Amino acid sequence: MNDDKKVILVVDDTAENIDVLRGILSSTFKIKAALNGEKALQIAFKNPPDLMLLDVMMPEMDGYEVCRLLKSDDVTKNIPIIFVTGKTEPDEIAKGLELGAVDFLSKPIDPNLLLEKVKKYL
Q: What is the chain's Cα-based Rg?
């Protein structure tokens, strides 16, 4: 067992989406998951992951708000955040990048593209 694996925090309000991402990434990375923004923040502040895959559209606290809070804190501001979303409008992408995300991936996820982007930002 290799404990030197990089940790990726996957945040999505749909368990099936987390399972898809875990299936693609778990052989190479350690995966932590959260079903909402509140839980994602708790995990990130306690044990900052090496990278975060963050859904935009979630109830209560959306991904933009999670990103904004993480980027405004010294402990978590350097975590690369890739938004994973069904939103592909240029203004939505621009908003995420302005908040500090490093990239966007649109759903449905292309496994090869996901792996390449994750490796790039790690």
A: 13
The letter for the amino acid at 23 is G
Its pTM stands at: 0.95
Dihedral class, residue 60 (left if φ above 0, else alpha if ψ from -120 to 50, else beta): left
Q: Render the burial of 87-116: b for 16+ CB within 10 Å, e for the rest.
A: beeeebbebbeebbbbbbbebeeeeeebee
| Three-class DSSP labels, 32-100 | EEECCHHHHHHHHHHCCCCEEEEECCCCCCCHHHHHHHHHCCCCCCCCCEEEEECCCCHHHHHHHHHCC
d(CA 57, CA 45): 21
| 7 DSSP assignment | E
Is the CB of residue 33 less than 8 Å from the CB of residue 26? no
pLDDT tens profile 64-122: 999 999 999 999 999 999 999 988 889 999 999 999 999 999 999 999 999 999 999 99
Look up residue 14 and give its amino acid: T
| 19 DSSP assignment | H
